[in-house]
Structures are given as structure tokens and as C-alpha cells.
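Submission checklist for the structure archive. All mandatory fields must be present; incomplete records are returned to the submitter.

[x] Identifier: MarR family transcriptional regulator
[x] Organism: Novosphingobium umbonatum
[x] Residue count: 113
[x] Sequence attached
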Amino acid sequence: MAKRYPKQPGAKGLTSATFGTSEDAASAMSGHRKRLHSLAIHTLALHGALAPFEAVKLSGVKACALQPRFSELIAERLAEPTGQRRRNPETGKSAAVLRLTELGRERLAGGAQ
């Protein structure tokens, strides 16, 4: 499944410990990926630079569904880290703040595919 990422949800693969659960989860998400990907990129466009946990809170979507879309945006060079980090008040951990790249802004405008 890794060869299809980031165009389709990824999975770490089959191990004796997971018995394919990662692959199953990726398959279950594939039908929702396009909408969630769009939500992630539009949230960054509307609100500017955000940590993924902030975008999750603004969108009202579960973190397990939306947060991986930000990794996809980075892999597609549509978003990039700003170099800033913000502390997630719920977990106490810090997260990278992301912003749209020029390519990401072009994609929203309908220019780049």
C-alpha cells in the first residue's frame, strides 16, 4: 500500500502483531480521503498557519481521520512546516505548525494538478 501513498491512505503493513489492522483501517478510510484532504487544505487556507490539532478542533472532525491528511499534504508538497511548534493543551506535546506552499495555493486556485 505504501506505493499508493499519499494519493490513498497508507498502512504500515502486515505484521504478526497487527494482523493487517493497519491495512484494514487504510481501506476503510479510502472512501473518505478526498473529502478529508479537501477539508485539511481548505482549513489551512482559511485560517492560515495551524498545527494539525488546531485544524482538527476547528473542523470538528476526529483527529484519527483528519490528522493523517496533513502528512499527505506535506508529502504532496502542498503544505510545509513553518519551523514553529505549538503545545497541544490536551496532550502536552508540541506539534509542528503548517502552512500552505505556493503549490498548495495554486492547487486551491485550480492551477496546479
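[x] Structure attached
Curator remark: The mean pLDDT is 83. Residues 33-47 form the longest helix (15 residues).
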